[in-house]
Amino acid sequence: MATRRTFIKVLGGGAALLMTPAEKLAGLSLPGEDPTTFAVVRGGDPAAAVRKAVDMLGGMGSFVKTGDVVFVKPNISWDRRPEQAATTNPAVVETVVAMVREAGASRIIVADNACNEARRTYKTSGIREAAERAGAEVPFMEKRKFRMIDLGGEVMKDWEVYTEAIEADKIINLPVAKHHGLSNVTLSMKNLMGLIGGRRDLLHQKLPECVVDLTAFFKPALTILDAVRLLRVNGPQGGTLGDVVRLDTIAASTDQVKIDAFGISLFEGAEFDTNPLSFPHVRIAQAKGLGSADFRGRGYAEIKL
Amino acid sequence: MAKMKNIRRLSQILFLVVFLVLFIQTEYKGEDELGLPVRLFLDFDPLIALSSILASHAARAVFLLSLITIALTVLLGRFFCGWLCPLGTMNTAVGYVRMRRRSKSPDGAGFPRLRKVKYFVLVFVLSAALFGWNAAGFLDPISLTIRSLAIGFNPAVNGIARSALEFLYSLNIPGVSGAFDALYSKMTGTVLAFEQPVFRQMILIASIFAAILALNFAAPRFWCRYLCPLGALLGLVGSKQMLARVDVDGAKCISCRKCNRSCQGEATPFPSGNWASRECLLCYNCREICPVKAVAIHPTMKETGEGNVDLQRRRLLAAGAAALVTVPLVRFGEHHKRPDPSLIRPPGAIPEPEFLQTCVKCGECMKVCLTNGLQPALTQAGFEGLWTPMLVPRLGYCEYNCNLCSQVCPTGAIAGLTLEEKQRIRIGLAFFDRNRCIPYSMGRNCGVCEEHCPAPGKAIKFREVEGIGRDGAPFALKLPEVDPALCIGCGICENKCPIVDKPGVRVSSINESRAEYKLYL
Fold it and tell me: pTM (2 decimals)?
C-alpha cells in the first residue's frame, strides 16, 4: 500500500532524475539496484569506451575535484609500440587526461618509472605525445625526485617514492592488462610499481606481498584497466603481434582487487589457472580488506558499445 | 679592412662551437635517426680515410668528402690546422699564454728540431696501417679530441653541473629551488647528458688530453707543430700552398723577428726565403704584426723561398721500419687465438680482424650509446684494440630498438644497419650461473631477467618445478633458461639481475653472428 512517505520519495527521485544530465543517466541506478561501482565497456573505440566507463561510475567529477593536482599512472615501461600492447593505449591515456582536465584539475602529471630507456618508452608508446596533447605534463622520473618514505607495508617499509605522486591530490591508475612471466598477469596493483624507485628488482622475490603493500599505500582514486589489446603470452614485453588479441574492453572501478580479478578473467583459456583466487596477490589484498575478488557481485554493470 | 687574423680567430671559434654542438648532439634526441651529421669533422678528415683504406683495403663513399679537404689544402696549405681544427683552436687558446711570455730565443719559444717528428709519426702511422694496424685514431686530432671529450671530460662536466644543480634544488628555497628544478629538467638531455655518463679509463684518457694541452706551456701549439700526424699529412699535401704564400720583402725587412715570434706554426718567415710552407698554419700573425708591412700573403708564382725542414729520408725509412717491427708485436697476440670472452662488440661490428683494422677509436659510438654500455677496451682486444668499443652489460645493455652506434661510426667498423637487421644480430649469448641465480641457488622466484628479455618469444624461458617454501608449502618455482636460438646477447638480463655485484646471468661473446667459428649451436 502506498503511504505518503513512499509517495514523496518517488516524487523526489523523479525530480532528481529529471535534473540529471542525460549522459549521467547510464550510470544511475534504479531504485532497489546498487549504484555501479564496477563498470565494464566492451566494443567501441578506446576513447568512447573510457568515457562511457567513467560516466557509469558517476563521471570524472566524482573522483576529481576542481583545483586538484592529479597524477595519472599509465604503463610506459617498455620500448614498444601501442599495437604491441606492452604499454597503456595512448588513446586511453589521452581520454583520461582530457576528462581529468574537464573535471577542473589544476595540474595533471603523467609519468612512469620505465624499465627500458625512458626517452624511448615515452616516445615509442605514443603516450608522451597523447598526454601532452590532452594537456598533461609528462616528465621523466628523475632520480633526485624520489624520496624515502615509510610505506608501512607488510614487506615494504622504507622505500623511495616519486615525490610528485605522493604530493598529488589524486592518483589515477591506468594499467594495461598483460601476461607476465613470473606472476602470470600484470594488472592494476603491479602497475603501481612504476611510482617507486630504488631496488625494484628485489621485489620480485615477494611480488604478491609487495604489490598489495603498494596498493594499500597509494590508494588510487580511480583505476581504469586498458584491455583494448591483450598481450596474452610473452609478457610483460611481448614484441610479436601474434601474442596480442584485440578485446576492445575497458574496466573502471575504485576497487583494484576487482579490477585485477576481472583482468585475470580475460585470460580465460591460458595455460595458468584463471580463477582470481588462485593468484596470491588477489587473496592477500582481499584478506586485507582492500577490495573484493568478486567483481561480478553488487555494483557490476556491463555495457556493449 | 678587417684584420685577417681576427677573421681567422672568428673562424676558429665558430668551428669549435660547431664541433662542440655536434659533440653534445651525439646523443639520442627522441628520434630513431640522429638526423644531424654529428661525425662531420671525421668525415672531412683525410687521415681517418687514408688509414682506414690502407689498413682494411676497403673504401667507403663517405671518404670522398676528405678529398675536399685535400683539394683545399693543395691550394691553401694547412688552413685546416689554422682555421678549423678544434684541437688546434684549443691549443691556440692555451698556447696564447706562452706566446705572450718572453722567450730566451729571439724567434720565440720553440723547438725547431722537433718539427720533423710529426712526419715520422705520420709515416709510422701510415706504415702501420699498411701492415694492418690502424693506429691513426690514437693520434688523429679529431678522433683524439672526440674520444677525450666523450670519455674523459663529458662525465666530469656532467658530474659537476649535476651536483651544482642538485645542491641548489636541495636547498629548498622557495622560488630558487623551483627555478633550478626547471633548469635541471631543461638541461638534461639537451646540454647535459640524460643520465650521468660513466666510463672506464676516464682518468687515463682525460690525462693524456690534459697533457697535450699542457705542452703548450713548453711551446705554443706544441702538438700541432711537432706531433700531429694530420698536420704532417696536410703539410706535405699543401706544401705548394699556391694561393696563399708568405712572401717577405727582404728590402723592406728591418730584421725585428716579430714575425717569427708570433708564428703559430714555427714556419720561420724571417729571414726572407726561409719560410717553411709545410709548417705554415695560415694564421696571418706575421703579416699583421710586421711593423714595416714587409710580409705579404698572396697567390704568387714567384719563388718565395722554401725553408722546409729536411725530412731525412733515412729517418723516414726508419719510422716505416719501426712500424714494420711494431705491428707484429701488436697484432699477433693472444687475442687473435682466443678472443676475450668479455669482448662483446656493438651490433653491426664487422668481423673482428677487419674491425680492428677499421675502427679509429674515436669514441663516437660510446658517446651516443643510449645506455652508456659501450666502453673503451683496455686489453680485451690486445694492444691494437685499445679503446675500441665493447659492451659491458653490467654498466649498460644494448637497447633493443636502438642502432645509434652504427649511425655515428665514421669508418664502417660498425656497419650501418636498419633496426630490423640490428634486431636479428647476435652479439653474444647469456649463461646462467646456477650457483648465484636466485631461483637455482636459493629456491625462490625472481624472474627479472625473463621480464626484461626483449627478444620476441623470449630468449629466457621459465621451466616450472615444484619449490618448497620455508613454511613447507609447495609452490611453482620458475627456473630461467636461455634459448640460444633466440638470445641476441643484448645483456639486459645481466644488467637488470638483482645480484648487483656478480650477477646470476652473464653474457659472453660466444655465438656472435659475425664470427662463424664462435657459433654455439
Answer: 0.91
